[in-house]
Amino acid sequence: MTSKPLYTRVLLKASGEALMGSQGFGIDVAVADRIASDIAEARAMGVEVGVVVGGGNIFRGVAVASKGGDRVTGDHMGMLGTVINALALATSLRKQDVETVVLSAIAMPEICESFSQRAAIHHLSQGRVVIFAGGTGNPFFTTDSAATLRGAEIGAQAIFKGTQVDGIYSADPKKDPNATRFDTLTHSEVLEKGLAVMDVTAVALARENNIPIIVFSIHEKGEFGKILAGGGLKTVVSDD
Ligand SMILES: Nc1ncnc2c1ncn2[C@@H]1O[C@H](COP(=O)(O)OP(=O)(O)O)[C@@H](O)[C@H]1O
Ligand SMILES: O=c1ccn([C@@H]2O[C@H](COP(=O)(O)OP(=O)(O)O)[C@@H](O)[C@H]2O)c(=O)[nH]1
What we know:
Bound molecules: adenosine-5'-diphosphate, uridine-5'-diphosphate
Number of domains: 1
Radius of gyration: 17 Å
Distance between the termini: 28 Å
Number of helices: 9
CATH topology: Carbamate kinase
Number of strands: 9
Shape: globular
């Protein structure tokens, strides 16, 4: 599909849990390849794509804290998990001949470039997919917040939150079978209704910078491209 896209530069948040597929832990290469093929399709449409990858398939800092360990160290471990996922997704993209760079919030020059806004925008404007690793680089944050932060820094026209469900519902659809899906919401409505698909910090930062958030299922092949072309199943969070 090569329809004219609605956006020219977007930020895709790919959850870590999505990358593990049906396994209980780690990375399912077939899933990483499939997500990469959706990103390749977006590039073929001419859309510049930045990607923030999660790390929940490998480690979450709160897991350490809940067992009496140090939260900050746990978060460091979580951020390193996102680097592993970023390298896996970059590998899948390069296999499909999509030029890709990984920029890490935590310097590890032997492995990948360090993040700077200037480097990110340079690579994007050269047509490369830029994968942002290491979250925000700070403990007590999430990769959803990293997605909004990097989205604002690169001037993304929308944040695409690719997750396990196909939009934002009146309640968690995994827990409430009667939950209904919203087509559109404002950032304030998401916060006021306590709709927990994305964390409060991420939504507040997107509201402050007037960036729409599009929540969609990362498991549906081709959905990213369909939404970029104006269709697809999603919830759009926007204040316009
Ligand atoms: N109101 C809601 N609408 C949609 N999903 C919700 C809602 N409340 C909670 N969720 C849950 O939020 C999850 C996404 O949150 P998150 O923990 O960021 O997952 P991930 O990072 O793995 O995508 C969904 O898989 C869904 O089960
Ligand atoms: O800016 C950030 C981003 C992530 N993390 C840590 O990395 C883990 C994995 O990220 P996240 O839970 O956001 O991944 P996802 O839910 O998207 O798979 C988190 O639990 C945190 O421990 C962090 O400390 N700072």
